[in-house]
Amino acid sequence: MTSEQSLIVTETDMERLRHVIDHHDGGRAAELAEMLDLELSRARVVASETVPANVVTMNSTVIFEDEETCEQRQVTLVYPRDARSEEGRISVLAPMGSALIGLSVGQSISWPMPGGRTRRVRVIAVPYQPEAAGHYHL
Fold this sequence. Notes:
Layout: E1 2-3, E2 7-10, H1 11-22, H2 28-40, E3 43-46, E4 61-66, E5 72-78, E6 89-91, H3 95-100, E7 108-112, E8 118-128
Parallel strand pairs: 2-3, 5-6
Antiparallel strand pairs: 1-7, 4-5, 4-8, 7-8
């Protein structure tokens, strides 16, 4: 899990994500929660009103690229209870969700995936970020 820059997470997201980490269901979720916790430990926490619009926050829509295959994908990063992969709504506890939280446009990260693989992804765009749209209640 390496990236070129630090992560940025809002105070609200950090508080809610700490709750998710503390109340996971065990099993594979415990491992995923631990990975998310480790990632969040290096984040710079900012007020929701000051987070840059190009940062992936919770409930953001993000376009990212797999740097190996050049395949691009658009997803919305959500809390586990709202995840619907068939709708492009991925959980922050999913490996790719944990990789994306807090990244800025242009930033890349290498992230361990199921099966022992590592994937390097780069954030291409954040077409929707709740904070930038003034939607602080999401």
